[in-house]
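Hi everyone, sorry if this is the wrong subforum. Our group has a chain we'd like a structural model of before ordering constructs, and none of us has done structure prediction before. Sequence below.
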Amino acid sequence: MKVGLIGVSGARPLEFWEAFLRELGVEVAVPTLPPHELYALGKESMPSEAAHLQYLLGRVLELQRSDLVLLPPLLPVAQDAWGEALADLLPRRISGLPPLQLIPDDGPAALSVAGELGQRLTHNPATVRLALDRTRPLSQPPKEAMPRLSVASRPTVAVLGPPALLADPYLSGPLRQKLDALGLHGVYGSDLPASQVQQRAERFGDAPAGQRWLNGAQGLLEGKSAVQGVLYVYPERDVAWQRALVRMARKVRLPSAVQGIEPDQQGWQELEDLHCQLTAPVSAPAAGRLRTHAAVTLSSPAPSTGDEE
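Answer:
Right subforum, don't worry. Here is the predicted structure as tokens:
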């Protein structure tokens, strides 16, 4: 049995799952190609989809010879087909993929899913219990701490968007470089203490999971005096996340901008406009109150169900 394993680079849950599978005696395969090659591979197969989906598909395609591929879920917002049914839609779009299973990054949930998966893979309860006992410490979240909120002479900007986009070094790399080049200090929602975000997110219990997370992260950062503006970022061509972030930008009290990004990003107009707002002289008319919003596509086509090669 060979199991492919995909996670956010450097994330602790990946350590748990890899250790657990090896304790079961299962062969584990992880993506090894350079990120730009994986992105190009996925982009070739699904050229019209968002960058984070293309990158994820590239990693799945590299592990195509596995008997099963485990991958992290995507937090959905309203009318977000990919976020709601990722493991079902990918095989419908791309023929020949191995079975896919989403794995949680939450400690208790991960242990529960691991136990069920171990039973399916080994049919040996004793082996599964031993593997869980040995790897349980790795399922615990790391010690939480607020990221640094201010840097001398640099305006602080809260950066909110899909966690899968913000937390991945390859996908968010160009954004981080651009913020640094503009002299802005970015505080990313994906770096916030998960428990504090969750506590605030619980107030929005009827919203999709991604929207709850956004509201929780924004509520935590918006109240910090160091935060002077909010940058909402979404993967280019992801209309569901674009719409959700534009709605939030219209309500936020701080200067804001909505910027689409991708690994080979060229234009940064919205981010540059926000930079001008935050660094304009205080005496300028309505300084710090203007907002820039990306144009919103009026329709959001559902992913095709036909096979693509």
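For your construct planning: The longest helix spans residues 107-122. The two ends are 26 Å apart (CA to CA).
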